[in-house]
Amino acid sequence: MTNREKFLDIYSTYIKREGAQELLAWLTGTNSDFFTAPASTRYHSAYEGGLLEHSINVYECLRDYLARNKVRDEFGLSYSDETIAIVSLLHDLCKVNVYRVSTRNVKDPATGQWKPMPYYEFDDNLPYGHGEKSVYVISGFMRLTREEAFAIRYHMGFSNEDDARNVGKAFELFPLALALSIADTEATYFVEARKEQK
What is the phi/psi pair of residue 99, to 5°? Predict the structure, then answer.
């Protein structure tokens, strides 16, 4: 199964709320590069299809985290399959249509000659922030619960430029935000980093 097929299967199986099909139509249409975009310019999954792969990785990491006995029984975290799919698969919609392929000259170490090499350049025509932009984009199609919105908004955790008090308070009030941040970090620094090192 390709990553595209896997994403479409998870999305169609679990995300049923009003507006979900319109959002999916936008994601799969010609006005979105979601399925081909990288997840970053150089930090993680900086290759074609990286955003799609990262979204699936976060979904799998979040499901695994929420399935842990301690998380379920001791921390009391329990969310619907729909909520898990929404926050993980859609947390980085802020990255749709913001990367473009450009070239720069790079010196070939073997020959000493300069040659043009492709790379991704960041060019955001809707500079609305990171998590908040994802919430904004999703909300144009379907309603999020308050906890879903806060989870997506604060999925970058303390690594974002936010006031740390806001991040801590969001994690305290909306535990799904902490869970999604953990899943995003795990996907980025373990699942994807290990793949890229091979």
Answer: -110, 135
- When pLDDT is cut at 50, 70 and 90, the band that residue 197 belongs to is low
pTM of the model: 0.92
Q: Residue length, the chain? A: 198
Separation between Cα atoms, residue 164 and residue 55, nearest integer Å: 25
Separation CA 33–CA 28 (nearest Å)? 8
| Rounded to 5°, angle at Cα 19 from 52 and 79 | 70
- Angle, CA of 92, 189 and 158, to the nearest 5°: 65
Give strand ranges (E) for the chain: 99-107, 114-122
| CA 108 to chain centroid | 34
Please give the single-letter amino acid code of residue 76. G
pLDDT confidence of residue 107: 86
Secondary structure of residue 114 in the 3-state scheme: strand
